[in-house]
Amino acid sequence: MAIQRLLIANRGEIAVRIIRAARELGIHTIAAHSSADKASLAVRLADEAVEIGPAQAAKSYLNPAAILAAAQATHADAVHPGYGFLAENAAFARAVVEAGLVFVGPDAATIEQMGDKAQARATAQAAGVPVVPGSAGVLRDLAAAERAAEAMGYPLMIKAAAGGGGKGIRVVADAAEFAAAFQAAQREGLGSFGDDGMYLERFIARARHIEVQILGDGHRAVHCFERECSLQRRRQKVFEEAPSPVLDHATRTRLCASAVALAEAVHYRGAGTLEYLYDEASGEFFFIEMNTRIQVEHPITEMVTGVDLLREMLNIAGGAPLSLQQADIHLNGAAIECRINAEDPFNGFAPNIGTISALQWPGGPGVRIDSMLYQGYTVPPFYDSMLAKIIVHDESRPAALRRLQRALQETDIGGLKTTLPLHLALLGSADVHAADYHTGWLEQWLADNPPAA
Predict the structure, then answer these.
(1) Whole-angstrom Cα distance, residue 278 to residue 229?
(2) pTM score, two decimals?
(3) What is the pLDDT of residues 87-113, one digit of tens each?
(4) For residues 122 and 391, what is the distance between their CA atoms, to the nearest angstrom?
(5) Which of the following is catalytic: 235, 252, 293, 368?
(6) Would you say residue 16 has pLDDT above 90?
(7) Integer angstrom CA distances of residue 398 from 156, 240, 395, 406
(8) 293 given a catalytic annotation
(9) Residue 361's closest CA among 338, 328, 329?
C-alpha cells in the first residue's frame, strides 16, 4: 500500500530533501525533531512536527523508542531514516516493521548482511566481487583486534562496522598507535551509530574512492552509474563529482555490473551505494563497503541521470516495483557537489556556529542547493557541521567546473564561518582541473597550501 503519512527520523538538509520528495508524491510529512531543532527548516516545511527528545542525539535521533512513540502518536505509517543516526541500524529497522510501520529502506536482514561492513565484505567475496584484504568478522575486543592487526600488517585502517560518512575510521601506521586509535574509533562508532563493532582493512595510500548508486525492489536492481569521492579531509568527503573523470567505458561497465550483481544477490530493496577503491595505475577496483541508505552526495547522480532517487525509494517502500529498466538510465554531462560546512578553514577547520545574518544562494541554469539554512536561523552546536550542498551540472566536466566557480562566487552566508573559501581555493588547483588526485591528495594539498584569510 502506498505510504500516506511519513515520519522523517532525521534532521538537517536530508530531512528537507525527504520532505520535498514526499510532498511531491502527495504524502503527509511529519518532522521528528530534538528540542534543539524546533526552529529548523525541516520543521517549518513539514506538514506536522513532533519533538522526540533533548538536544543530545543519544536521547533523540538515536533513540528508537522515542522515534517509534512519535510515529505512533502522529499516526505515521512509514519512517524514513535519512542517512547517519539509525539509518543503517538493523534493530531499528526491525522494530519499525514490528510496530506495523514501513521502514523506507532495505529490510533488517539485508542491513545486517550489507549495512554491517564486515559482513558485507564476506558477502561480496562470496559473490565473486574483489575486496580489499582485511580482518574476518566484527571486532569489539582490543586484544583480539591487536592480534588481527599483527597478522595483517601495517599500515591499516580501522573502520566502524556500522559506520558511514567517514565516521569511526582511523588510519594506523604501526602497532604503537593501534590501541588508542581502535578505542577512539569505537567511541566514535558508538556515538554516531550506537555500535562499537570494528573491522580492519589494508590501507591503500593512493587509491581513488569511487562508488556506484543502485536501486532495487527486492527482485531486480539497476545502477545509476558512479560517483568520484576521492577529495576527502579526515575521511570526510568534501567535493564529489559524477561520473568519475578517470574511468574508461570498459571499466565503468565492469564496475557497475559488479554492483548490480551484488545488489541482486542480496535481493536489495531501496536505494544503496556500493563503495570501491580504484587503483588507477592497474585498473583494479576493490569493494570496500555498502551503504544501505541514501547518500549525502546523491544529488550529483540525480543531476547526471535525471532519476529522482528519493522518489524511487518512497515508491518502492510503498510496494511499487522498480520503475526503471537499465536501458532507461543514461549519463548526461557532468555534475559536482561541494559540501558547505560550518567550519573555519582559516582556523584549522574549527567548528563555527552562529546565526545566519545574510543568505544569498546562487541561481541560473544547472545549479541546485540542498540546504538546512534560512536567514535568521541559529545553527545548533550539537550535530554534524554540514549546512548545505551546492550542486552544479553542465554538459562536460570543464563546463561544470566553470559553472561551480560562478555559483560559489555568488554565494553569501553571513553570520558564521564556512568552508566556502576552501572550495574556491580548490578550483584554483591544476590537479583538480586535471582530475589528478586520490584519497590522500587533499590532506597533503592543505598542508602545502594552508588557507590564508
Answers:
(1) 11
(2) 0.89
(3) 999 999 999 999 999 999 999 999 999
(4) 35
(5) 293
(6) yes
(7) 36, 14, 9, 13
(8) yes
(9) 338
